[in-house]
Write a structure and sequence with these properties.
There is one protein chain. The chain folds into 2 domains: about 1-205 and about 330-405, no CATH class; about 210-320, no CATH class. About 80% of the residues lie in helices and about 0% in strands. The chain is built from 16 helices and no strands. The longest helix is centred in the first third of the chain and has 40 residues, at about 80-115. It is globular. Belongs to the chromate ion transporter (CHR) (TC 2.A.51) family. This is Chromate transporter.
């Protein structure tokens, strides 16, 4: 017990010594990801892992996996929440804001401009766009492979990962994922011994528990109070904020799940026509960053730049409040010895969930012909064997997709 306690103290001391970043550093790193992260949540997590874990070493593999597991539990865009959490680890609340701005703003601005200039453009058949989707296959495969080697390296954890992937594919529901993560935690608690789990380093969250509790109180207050205010006030801005905040608070399962919820909010109300909605969705597939920035497009269509700002902030505010409220408690729980085997099972399940997401929707939407598979294999080789940076592989895949489309 003394040895384990000494190891825990050493881990906390090392975490305390971990250098914190400047706001500009965090903003620059996240903006780079915001400009290059094509392909949806599974690919985003791969880009994050390459940048924050492997290249910058801001956190270790297991801490990153724990953040991913936490964000799978929370409603909202998981990849954006992971980015916010890493920003908070590096620079506190200002760091979380900087990380969100850097990752979100490029795609939000692009969609706002599209709403003004190209609201009827159809980019769904562009060859270069298909190439970007193929790049997402390679980046996602690299992420799953790397995390599996670290988090599911033995027979027991590998079995948890594979069973999780199979069940998610057979019963594709966000609630299925939540149930499986909880079940994997129970399996880990009873069948995976804590002695096999290395000591977890502290995440280094510079957020007080009082701040965390306040963030959760604000979240619940807005979720319950905004509809009441909307019922007594005719303000369109308030109605817009309420609609997007509610969607951002209640959606599980990532960007594609949010689309029908948004359509139900904005199309029947007459804020956006169905043609405008579909045109914006097509444009959102062609840009990097989180799909939730589709809210900026819708807000622009409804009320220009002001509408875009209201919709974008309302859409992501729930995620920011939930991450702020959860991180300090999560950091404490994950470092208790009795919970380490629980997280061992949870992390194996996360690998399985990411593996399932790699197949559907990433693989199924990108790989249709032998040429597609060949390009994906080449991109994967450039990442794994030639160690090219992801942005270079993205450019290579876009060019390859354009070439394939020219003679297909």
């Amino acid at each position: 017990m003394t040895k384990q306690t000494d190891a825990a103290r050493h881990a906390e001391t090392e975490a305390a010594k971990r250098p914190k970043g400047t706001i500009l550093e965090i903003l620059g790193a996240s903006a780079k990801l915001g400009l290059t992260s094509f392909g949806g949540p599974i690919a985003h997590l791969g880009y994050f892992r390459n940048e924050y874990v492997k290249r910058r070493k801001w956190l270790d593999e297991k801490s990153y996996a724990d953040l991913v597991a936490l964000c799978q539990f929370l409603p909202g865009p998981a990849s954006s929440q992971v980015g916010i959490a890493i920003g908070m680890m590096r620079g506190g609340l200002p760091g979380g804001i900087a990380s969100w701005i850097g990752f979100t703003l490029p795609s939000a601005l692009a969609l706002m401009l599209f709403a003004y200039l190209l609201d009827h453009a159809d980019v769904s058949g562009a060859g270069w766009l298909h190439g970007l989707m193929i790049a997402a296959v390679a980046v996602g495969a690299q992420a799953v492979w790397g995390m599996a080697r670290s988090l599911a390296p033995d027979r027991n954890r590998g079995t948890i990962a594979m069973l999780t992937a199979v069940i998610v594919l057979v019963w594709p529901s966000a609630y299925t994922q939540l149930i499986l993560i909880a079940a994997a935690g129970l399996v880990g608690r009873w069948f995976l011994t804590a002695s096999n789990v290395p000591e977890m380093p502290r995440l280094g969250i510079a957020i007080r528990r009082r701040t965390a509790v306040a963030a959760l109180v604000v979240f619940v207050g807005l979720l319950l109070g905004l509809p009441l205010l909307r019922s007594v006030s005719p303000s369109q801005g308030l109605a817009l904020f309420d609609s997007f905040f509610r969607v951002g608070s209640l959606v599980f399962g990532g960007g594609h799940v949010v689309l029908p919820m948004l359509q139900a909010e904005v199309v029947p109300a007459g804020w956006v026509t169905k043609a405008q909605f579909l045109a914006g969705y097509g444009a959102a597939q062609a840009i990097p960053g989180p799909l939730f920035t589709f809210s900026a497009y819708l807000g622009t269509v409804m009320n220009g730049w002001a509408g875009a700002g209201i919709a974008l902030i309302a859409m992501f505010l729930p995620s920011f409040l939930l991450v702020t409220g959860a991180l300090p408690f999560w950091d404490t729980i994950r470092n208790r010895p009795h919970f380490q085997s629980v997280f061992q099972g949870i992390n194996a399940a996360v690998v399985g969930i990411l593996l399932a997401a790699l197949y559907d929707p990433v693989w199924t939407k990108a790989i249709h012909t032998p040429y597609d598979f060949g390009l994906a294999l080449a991109a994967f080789g450039l990442l794994m064997l030639w160690k090219l940076p992801p942005w270079a592989v993205v450019l290579f895949s876009a060019a390859g997709g354009a070439v394939i489309s020219s003679f297909a």
